[in-house]
């Protein structure tokens, strides 16, 4: 399975100031890149906090899977903009589930704990990191863990006047 991690991060490596951050420090160009790339991929995987921070329209034209310890709390959840399902289990369990449904590629969109769990399990195959020209000083890290994972730089491009995208593969 191809698991593509997509994130916006500050120059000092944070993906949010705190759990209530609306990411307004990112540009409209990054938001458009995110929309285009996740629609191209078709399936997004995220944690509960990321899911709860996104507006319902963010799920339009995509299949979304939310990792949560308590999927029952979302029983009866309806999103008129896209398909959203809730899953409890390890990253490897989700991959097995998705492969059983012939899903070959997913966009991993956070948060930091989910990203780290997939990295530590050795499941991430590509990364798209938008570097925003801001130093937050503290906040939520998007990448972590104790693993020594090395990636190969595939390409870079300037997304906006002050942002760059780094595309890596394993």
UniProtKB/TrEMBL annotation:
Taxonomic path: Bacteria, Candidatus Dojkabacteria
Record InterPro entries: DHFR-like_dom_sf, DHFR_dom, RibDG_C, Riboflavin_Biosynth_HTPR
Pfam family, one: RibD_C
Domain DHFR: 2-170
Protein name as it appears in the record: Dihydrofolate reductase
Domain of life, source organism: Bacteria
Gene3D superfamilies in the cross-refs: Dihydrofolate Reductase, subunit A
Molecular function per GO: 5-amino-6-(5-phosphoribosylamino)uracil reductase activity; dihydrofolate reductase activity
GO biological process: riboflavin biosynthetic process; tetrahydrofolate biosynthetic process
């Amino acid at each position: 399975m191809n698991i593509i991690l997509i994130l916006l991060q500050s120059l000092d490596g944070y993906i949010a100031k705190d759990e209530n951050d609306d990411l307004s420090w990112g540009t409209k160009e990054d938001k458009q890149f995110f929309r285009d790339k996740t629609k191209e991929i078709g399936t997004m995987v995220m944690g509960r906090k990321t899911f709860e921070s996104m507006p319902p329209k963010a799920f339009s034209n995509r299949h979304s899977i939310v990792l949560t310890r308590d999927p029952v709390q979302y029983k009866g959840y309806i999103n008129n903009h896209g398909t959203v399902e809730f899953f409890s289990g390890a990253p490897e369990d989700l991959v097995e589930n998705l492969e059983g449904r012939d899903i070959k590629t997913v966009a991993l969109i956070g948060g930091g704990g989910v990203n780290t769990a997939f990295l530590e399990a050795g499941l991430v195959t590509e990364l798209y990191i938008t570097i925003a020209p801001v130093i937050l000083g503290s906040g939520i890290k998007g990448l972590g863990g104790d693993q020594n994972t090395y990636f190969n730089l595939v390409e870079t491009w300037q997304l906006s006047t002050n942002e760059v995208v780094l595309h890596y593969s394993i």
